[in-house]
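Intended use. Records like the one below are meant for learning the mapping from a protein sequence to its folded structure. Do not use them to infer anything beyond what is encoded.
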Amino acid sequence: MLVGQLPDLRETQSGKDLIAIGKAEGKAEGKAEGLLKLLEIRFGEVPAALREGIQKVDSDERIDSLYELALKISKLSDFKL
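Structure written out for the chain above:
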């Protein structure tokens, strides 16, 4: 049984680390969703396999390079992960 108050986890190193991980994952997910929206606007429906592949990308640099590719290509079949 615990006696007294628990510490605010946001003030512990573990809590800070977990928050940072959550923010990074949220940022990557947001970028992936934005990329999918861009592809949908330009080319229509995005195939499920491509959608799943984009959602698995976890590198900001890779997502950024995929954004550039999405803006340069003239047809969706030229988009390669």
